[in-house]
Amino acid sequence: MKGLNSRSGRGTWRNWAGNVAVRPVREARPASVRELADAVRGAAEDGLRVKTVGTGHSFTAIAATDGLLIRPDLLTGIRRIDRRGMTVTVESGTPLKRLNVALAREGLSLTNMGDIMEQTVAGATSTGTHGTGRDSASIAAQIRELELVTADGRVLTCSEKENPEIFAAARIGLGALGVVSALTFAVEPIFLLTAREEPMTFDRVTSEFDALHAENEHFEFYWFPHTGNCTTKRNNRSAGPAAPPGRFGGWIEDEFLSNGLFQVVNSVGRAVPAAVPAIARVSSRALSARTYTDIPYKVFTSPRRVRFMEMEYALPREAAVGALRELKAMVERSPLRVSFPVEVRTAPADDITLSTASGRDTAYIAVHMYRGTPYRRYFTAAERIMTAHGGRPHWGKVHTRDAAYLAEAYPRFGEFTALRDRLDPDRLFGNDHLRRVLGD
Question: d(Cα 53, Cα 437) in Å, to the nearest integer?
Answer without folding.
Answer: 18
